[in-house]
Amino acid sequence: MPNDFVGLSLEEALNNFIFKSTVRIALLNQEIKSLRRLTTERTEAYNDLCGAVLKHADDTRQIVQHIEALSIAQEEKTSLLEYLKVATLESAFYHMGHALIEMKGLQAVSNINTCFVRRTKKYWVDLNNIETLCGLIIPHLPVYIFGDDGSGKISSYISSVYFDTNSFHLYDRRIKRDQGAKSLRIRSYGESSIISYVELKTHEDGWTGEKSTKKRFLVHTKLIPKLAKGIDIWEEIKTINTSLNDESLILYQEVLSLIRDLSLKPVVKTVYRRTAFQFPEDSSIRISLDTDLAMWSGDVGKYFPYAILEIKLEEGNEEDWVLALMNSSLIMPVDKFSKYLHGCSVHYSSVPSIPYWYNQISMSFKQDFQITHEPTQNIKLEKINSEISNLLHSIINRSNQSSYTSDEGRNYSSESSSGSNSTTALLTNCYLNSSRQPNEVAQNSSTSASHNEYLREEAERPPGVSYEASETNQCSETSQMGCECSGLNCGMRSQNTQQPQTQNMQQIHTKNTNVNRQTMNTEETPERDFFQPSALRRPGEPAVPSVPSSKPVTVPVRVEPKVFFANERTFLSWLHFAIFIGGIGAALMGLGDTHAALSGVCFIIVSVIFSIYALYLYMWRGNKIKEKDPGPYDDNHGPIILVAVFLSAMVTSVFFKFPLK
Description:
Layout: H1 10-37, H2 43-69, H3 74-84, H4 90-103, E1 118-125, H5 130-137, E2 143-144, E3 156-164, H6 169-176, E4 182-189, E5 195-202, E6 213-220, H7 224-228, H8 234-237, H9 245-262, E7 265-279, E8 282-297, E9 300-303, E10 307-314, H10 320-326, E11 331-333, H11 339-347, E12 354-355, E13 367-369, H12 379-404, H13 425-429, E14 434-438, H14 451-460, H15 467-470, H16 503-512, H17 527-530, E15 541-542, E16 553-554, H18 561-589, H19 594-626, H20 638-656
Parallel strand pairs: 9-15, 12-16
Antiparallel strand pairs: 1-10, 1-11, 2-7, 3-4, 3-7, 4-5, 5-6, 7-8, 8-9, 8-10, 13-14
């Protein structure tokens, strides 16, 4: 333990760590801005800064783990974790994204081509690992901000209201991935957006040769309640859908008919912050990170305990660093994860089945992993890195000793920090040094935001301006500990740290606590509640089952075209055999002999039976494949009967030939 920190108490060491972290953030921002002013080759300097940013994120991740493991009062933990949020890397990610775009000679805002074949993978991310994950991405992809207003915000709110029937007809078809399954949602970008999107997604199975589609048209946000009731509003929105008027009108009529015919109504609303990583004018690799996910049913909200990482890759464009990230222990793959399906499952007990991940979400997936660092070339950053590393070792050693000698007898495992000094191995070797032993995961919850502050800003904001555009970066180096949690800041939080800061927030938490799962009742969940701003409302309960659900679990099944081809090949094999037998029978009938003719008739009858059986088997299996029936697909009795019929025909043919001449 360094002599400089021997006399410090654990609390003083933690405060010193937080202070030095804010200093390092200021140095990082200063160096990034200096980098953007350079006109010479700056790739090496950029990679060096990426390593320094990752070092900061990794140090913060470790210190959060040890703060959560301390045997101190929960209020003290909350205070330390809130204080630590002033050292967020959000501004660094923002400026580094612009630096990388400028290095590539691109414009910060450009049109994006989305017309290509790509595959999508989804993952869960522990909230404490968010900044570390972003630190692994920024060397290769910049933060993409559509409509950048220069505020330094790297994420924006997205809210989606999903529609369904009382019996969850759309949910049931969607979870089974039936051919032609549809889902309807209304999506808004920013809680105060005056324009929203009505989106209709249609699933197409691979065997059809068609691609799944997502079509949408624009609608004034104030008109959404009318549309949700099935009222015709086309005359009021056709002026904002002029670019694709004919297609928009056809889609609008389809959506309106769907709402009216099925009596659709809002069932779930999801609200989250999205951070996107990609190059302008290039969508071959797109990564999005959704944080602060809340799922609402009326005024009842539940927060999702993980962040959601989505990686979209163009077919054939799989770079080494992306594959290394996808295979790392930092994230957990959850194939076909759906916010809509999970929101319905957690809020309604009347859903016909649950997704496969629903009962697994409460299980720990956190794993030990280590990231190797190399010294940075920047002298100032290297000095502060060394001081913080010494502090980190001191805090880890003290927390281990405190946990070992605690009166409560609680033992905590701490992750070793072996000589942590800057750049990640992913930048050079494109892989993570990770071990995959399971570790205990700390449950996470969102931090509270001030409702009064929100109302004040709403009153001062000009009409038509979104919350993100008018919001300034409140979490500066000298900001108060109670600043609003935004974007990546919310990765550093722990269970039971929610302390409402106003009476209004306490009332909201009272509403959201100890609420049973709802049934489909419009009186309990009035439609107007789904269309009210809810980004700053913090749910009080996690979106996880209190006990494992006993409902049927539906696993997504993808039917490949080759399955249908195999069924056709089997049918043709049977048909070929039937034609062969029928040909023999026809030849026997043409010999002119009565006995031969009778034998020929027997063989033709067998041929017809084989043909009918082959056609029946083909159609039976085809329907089961289309319905994604798990099987079995074999026929235990049919072949036995066919063999008996064939042998009977052979015996009859021989019998007609006696006596032999």
